[in-house]
Design a protein that fits this description.
Elements lengths: L1 H20 L7 H4 E14 L5 E16 L4 E12 L1 H4 L5 H7 L1 E14 L2 E8 L21 E4 L3 H4 L3 E11 L2 E8 L27 E3 L13 E10 L2 E11 L4 E9 L2 E10 L2 E13 L2 E11 L2 E3 L9 E3 L2 E12 L3 E12 L15 E10 L7 E10 L5 E10 L4 E11 L14 E9 L1
Parallel strand pairs: 9-13
Antiparallel strand pairs: 1-2, 1-24, 2-3, 3-4, 4-5, 5-7, 7-8, 8-10, 10-11, 11-14, 12-13, 14-15, 15-18, 16-17, 18-19, 19-20, 20-21, 21-22, 22-23, 23-24
Length: 442
């Protein structure tokens, strides 16, 4: 029903706007329509015991754009997949099969209207306010799909939302972008028993425990989210200031005791999504041939689970500062390198925090990505290395892409994880895998 209403609204807006632009001409509509798509086969084999196929996924993308005029256009895209690994193996429980075996989703449905210094985009979309390596700092608008950790491309990882996105050019090279959305969808996390199931909070209860479902409504005017980004470009310095008001995309488990005499109290874990106020900035500067970039975001109201038995609700507030500094530069032999330092800093003590991936009051990560190309860029190797400095957990992801033609590519790669179980990458220490992908574009 929500999708039907949105389509009807978009159609009515197109009709109203385009009526002022020009009279429709049925003879030219094919020239104004562009359609393209992709088909891909993705195979993954898990290396550790039990060594077995972990992905046999067939994916399809179809997208189109129709230009009503130079100022008005409509874009739509759908994505679907079927993963045969759930029929080929019996390693995964039924709840994971229901969640990950098949999917058909609307990835984009955007009406774009330009008038003078104002550009408006309304519909289902991705709104990107930051670009980082293997992490998110100011990229806060869209929720993320973490069912395959952070391994897919970030354009596939982001979950599109229904939103109104308006950009106003205040002056030359100065823009103000405002976003509002009632689509309060949260991050999509893997189910218990999934290939990349996250290690949960380290709770140690002697009492019986009841965990409530996270069934908060994903579409709410009362809990709508929004913010703005002010951007300026001066003498090669690209600077943005951002503010975004949202609910925490990850659930925070609040505790409460329910007496049931003469039996022991029951511990109830209730997932909530506390309100966050995110204030941040981005900076990019090109110093040919080097590009320097930085992002910073302060999450005010951030809360974490604690294992402190004296804490009443099992949750503490720790406003959190995330930042990164990166540099992109060429190396000898046509190798492009990207080096990135990122940190998460908690404004308070990190003792007893029960969330994996938080090494302490300060959590530091280093990332290095190397890319190059051979034979007129028809053979393109890439390697990504990310390490958690405090706990020495890491991820290595080499990949080799072979461009067979303008429409067909093949790629072979691997994802290797190492570290202690309660670390960000070490929790997947037994999930090392090799991958093979074939993609056809049309």
């Amino acid at each position: 029903m929500r999708l039907l209403v949105a389509v009807l609204v978009l159609a009515s807006l197109v009709t109203a706007v385009d009526a002022d632009e020009r009279e429709p001409d049925a003879t030219i509509w094919p020239a104004a329509l562009r359609v393209r798509g992709r088909l891909a086969e993705e195979f993954a084999y898990r290396l550790h015991d039990p060594g077995d196929v972990s992905k046999l996924k067939t994916l399809g993308w179809l997208e189109g754009k129709y230009a009503f005029s130079e100022a008005v256009n409509l874009r739509a895209a759908v994505r679907g997949w079927y993963d045969a690994v759930f029929k080929a193996t019996d390693r995964y429980p039924a709840n994971v099969e229901r969640d990950q075996e098949a999917s058909l989703s609307l990835r984009e449905a955007i009406l774009s209207v330009s008038h003078g210094d104002l550009d408006v985009r309304v519909g289902r979309q991705q709104i990107v306010w930051g670009e980082a390596i293997s992490t998110f700092v100011t990229d806060v608008v869209n929720p993320k799909d973490f069912r395959e950790f952070v391994l897919p491309d970030f354009t596939e990882l982001r979950i599109p939302i229904w939103a109104l996105d308006a950009t106003w050019r205040l002056a030359r090279n100065v823009t103000l972008e405002t976003v509002w959305t009632p689509d309060t969808m949260h991050n999509r996390l893997p189910k218990r028993g999934a290939e990349f199931q996250f290690a949960g909070p380290d709770f140690r209860f002697r009492n019986p425990v009841v965990r409530l479902p996270d069934d908060e409504d994903e579409f709410s005017l009362a809990r709508s989210e929004g913010g703005f980004r002010l951007s300026a470009l001066r003498e090669g310095w690209d600077v943005s200031l951002i503010y975004y008001d949202q609910a925490d995309k990850n659930p925070v488990f609040f505790q409460r005791r329910v007496p049931q005499p003469p039996r022991p109290d029951v511990i109830v874990l209730e997932p909530r999504h506390p309100r966050l106020h995110v204030v941040g900035a981005t900076l990019t500067k090109s110093l040919e041939p080097v590009v320097v970039r930085s992002e910073v975001a302060l999450s005010v109201g951030k809360r974490y689970e604690t294992s402190d038995p004296l804490d009443g609700d099992g949750v503490v507030r720790r406003d959190t500062l995330d930042y990164l500094v990166g540099v992109d530069f060429p190396l000898a032999g046509d190798v492009d390198a990207a080096l990135q330092l990122s940190q998460k800093i908690l404004t308070g003590d990190a003792t007893n925090l029960a969330r994996p991936g938080v090494a302490g009051r300060v959590t530091t990560s280093l990332a290095l990505r190397l890319t190059t190309g051979f034979f007129n860029n028809t053979l393109n190797p890439t390697v990504l290395f990310v390490v958690g400095v405090e706990q020495a957990d890491f991820r290595v992801s080499p990949r080799l892409e072979w461009v067979l033609s303008g429409s067909v590519t093949m790629a072979v790669g691997a994802d290797i994880f190492e570290g202690r179980r309660r670390t960000l990458y070490g929790q997947f220490d037994r999930n090392d895998r090799v991958t093979f992908t074939t993609t056809w574009r049309f």
